[in-house]
Amino acid sequence: MAGVTLQQFQSSYSALNLENWRLYILQAYVTNSDEVRYNAVVHPGDLAEDDFLEAGKVNYESEYATLNPDGWRLYIFQSFPTPGQQLYNAIWRHGTHNEKTLYGATYTTYRDEYNQIYPEGWRLYVLNSYVSPSGEVLFDAVWRQGTIDRPL
């Protein structure tokens, strides 16, 4: 899928999911006319996935707090600024590994966290960067304990 709206993506993804296709890559972007569009790549698979798309920060954090204790871990994560708010896309899959998250950090804060937890065995799993409305480059990161291969 390329350049589709959220509704088009959800419709196609629902149909593909029933045929045992799972997300491998999900990318949202905002057009010059402030419309959110999606690119997606799917691979064959049968792992359960839970998606939460175009959520505001409070809603995303609430969903994360609900799903994480039930064994759901971030598989794909992206945040992106739109006019008026930061939006979050998350795809979760079941897992038992620990994860740490950092949202909206400056590069210095991100590197400080990275340098602090790397010796403890934490490895970077997801890294997003984006330009805030004020022009500052910010980072979101997800770390996992040890070396964990990304499942398909």
Structure, described:
The protein has a three-stranded antiparallel sheet with strand order 3-5-4, covered by helices on one side. A three-stranded antiparallel sheet has the order 6-8-7, with helices on one face. A two-stranded antiparallel sheet has the order 1-2. It contains three helices and eight strands, in the order H-E-E-E-H-E-E-E-H-E-E. Strand 7 (122-131) and strand 8 form a beta hairpin. With 152 residues, it is α+β, with helices and mostly antiparallel strands. It is globular and about 45 Å long. The protein has one domain (6-145).
Quantity of strands, as a count: 8
What is the rounded Rg? 16 Å
Amino- and carboxy-terminal Cα gap: 18 Å
The biggest beta sheet reads: 3 strands, antiparallel
Beta-strand percentage range: over 45%
Strand order of the largest sheet: 3-5-4
Mean pLDDT: 94
Question: What kind of oligomer do you see?
Answer: single chain
The domain count comes to 1
Ranges with pLDDT <50 over ≥5 residues?
Answer: none
| Global morphology | globular
Class of secondary structure makeup? alpha+beta
Share of residues in helices = 10-25%
